[in-house]
Design goal:
190 residues; mainly alpha; elongated
Length: 190
């Protein structure tokens, strides 16, 4: 392996150790022992080796953009291989925890499973819609009242709330009148 590959592998190790700090703190044998076991598992995993070696020859390209892309791809491939190896040795009983996993450690384990491709990514929750302005709230209230309240109740609201009445009058003035428009029903028969 080239020096660049070793540096990137070390960087992937540091990222794994840092991002899973709470989970690794609960491992009985310690974080360094866990990573030694992960390294041994990676040495025996032909798929992980082929995934990582795919990028090894192109890490030191002359083009800056191509080099950076190849290095990012190699680092991501190493991170995925590390996550898969961690899960493999955990399932084989090599890793044991000193206590029940904390919520933070459980979330980190879920993140490892997501990175390894063994769990679907968490769905993205869209941000809540922005709050309505006072005018938009009044319009929504008027439309809801018009659809669900009797006319007398709407008129009672108009008497008690001048802003409500003014906005209702404006909405009514903006609506086209279908009763007073000219419609020639017999136009198609001539």
């Amino acid at each position: 392996m080239s020096n660049t590959a070793l540096e990137l592998t070390q960087k992937a190790r540091e990222i794994f150790m840092d991002s899973n700090r709470d989970l690794l703190a609960l491992v009985r044998s310690g974080a360094d022992d866990v990573f030694r076991r992960i390294a041994a598992s990676l040495a025996l995993d032909a798929q992980a080796q082929s995934d990582c070696l795919l990028y090894a020859d192109i890490l030191d390209q002359p083009s800056k953009n191509a080099r950076e892309q190849a290095q990012d791809d190699f680092r991501n491939s190493m991170t995925i291989a590390i996550c898969r190896s961690y899960l493999r040795i955990a399932r084989n009983g090599v890793i044991s925890y000193v206590s029940k996993l904390t919520p933070e450690a459980r979330e980190q384990l879920e993140n490892i499973e997501i990175l390894a491709g063994e769990r679907a990514p968490r769905p993205v929750v869209p941000p809540p819609p922005p709050p309505l302005s006072a005018e938009e709230q009044l319009d929504a209230q008027i439309k809801d009242d018009w659809a669900h309240l009797p006319y007398s109740a709407v008129m009672a609201k108009c008497r008690t709330n001048p802003t409500y009445k003014a906005r209702l009058d404006q909405i009514m003035a903006d609506l086209p009148s279908t009763c007073t428009s000219y419609q020639d029903i017999g136009e198609g028969l001539r």
